[in-house]
Specification:
With 258 residues, this protein is mostly helical. It has nine helices and two strands, in the order ααααββααααα. The chain has a two-stranded antiparallel sheet. The longest helix is centred in the N-terminal third of the chain and has 47 residues. The N terminus is likely disordered.
């Protein structure tokens, strides 16, 4: 008799446990998808939102002297290059005045490497789009599962944030200690050739884009990413506080009725 009741009780609790696990899994997927979307959005904002940043970087590293070109010409090349990376132009060929001659700023190695960089960039935008679709599907599933959506998503957010923050901290510390090592490791992971290694004596592009500029852009991306995460975290805190006040109000009203 006791055995039969136990089996019945376990059978009754099992679906509830599975449901909670499903809600938690979906909430975590939503949180990590949001972080992923924020990361690639930070990249896009950092790179495309303000081209004055490039002017400041060119002045900081005195690239105009190395290239023997004007700021207007350098910015023209920059705009065309960035349009290419986001797919707004098909070829990377920019005729301008550089090194005392009217010529194409980019050579064959530049075009090959930047084509690979473009694939990475476009892939990142595709991942962001996929993350947004994932978030939408998660919200639909949470509605179907009749979950405490606001509460579960706010809790899941902070767990996901702890994981992402830990990884970002490790990468940030490594970059601060030895940016060149991290820079080289990145290229070794994402490129299966050594055509990303340029000779400044022969290549204009690497003179315009020194390693220091990349280091500064990483800081800019990281700052924007951190700000986006801070905004989402503030929203999660606000939701949790609002839910807490609602629960206290409901408990108070129930106590008054009794």
């Amino acid at each position: 008799m006791a055995s039969g009741l136990m089996r019945k009780d376990n059978a009754g609790r099992e679906p509830e446990g599975v449901m909670k696990a499903a809600v938690w899994a979906v909430s975590m997927i939503f949180a990590f998808s949001l972080i992923t979307a924020a990361l690639f959005t930070a990249f896009e904002i950092a790179i495309y939102s303000d081209f004055d940043v490039y002017e400041k970087e060119y002045e900081k590293y005195d690239v105009l002297s190395d290239l023997d070109m004007t700021m207007d010409d350098a910015m023209y090349v920059t705009h065309e290059m960035m349009d290419y990376l986001r797919g707004d132009r098909e070829t990377l060929s920019v005729i301008t005045d550089v090194d005392g001659e009217r010529q194409d700023f980019f050579n064959g190695q530049d075009r090959f490497h930047m084509a690979e960089v473009r694939e990475l960039f476009m892939g990142g935008l595709a991942i962001r789009a996929g993350a947004c679709v994932s978030m939408a599907l998660c919200l639909v599933l949470l509605v179907i599962l009749k979950a405490d959506m606001a509460g579960m998503l706010s809790r899941a957010w902070f767990y996901a944030l702890a994981v992402a923050g830990g990884l970002a901290a490790v990468i940030g510390i490594a970059a601060a200690v030895d940016f060149n090592a991290v820079f080289v490791a990145f290229h070794n992971v994402f490129f299966d050739n050594d055509l990303w290694i340029f000779d400044p004596a022969e290549d204009y592009m690497i003179r315009m884009l020194p390693e220091g500029l990349f280091a500064d852009m990483v800081v800019r991306i990281g700052t924007i990413f951190a700000l986006l995460l801070a905004v989402f975290s503030a929203a999660a805190v606000a939701v949790r506080k609002a839910l807490g006040r609602l629960r206290e109000k409901d408990a108070h009203e129930m106590g008054s009725e009794e």
